Amino acid sequence: MNRLINVGFGNVVNSSKIISIISPDAAPIKRMVQNAKDTGMAIDATCGRRTKAVIVTDSGYVILSSLLPETIAGRVNQFYGEKQDFDFHKHE
Question: Which of 6, 8, 15, 47 has the fewest beta carbons closer than 10 A?
Answer without folding.
Answer: 47
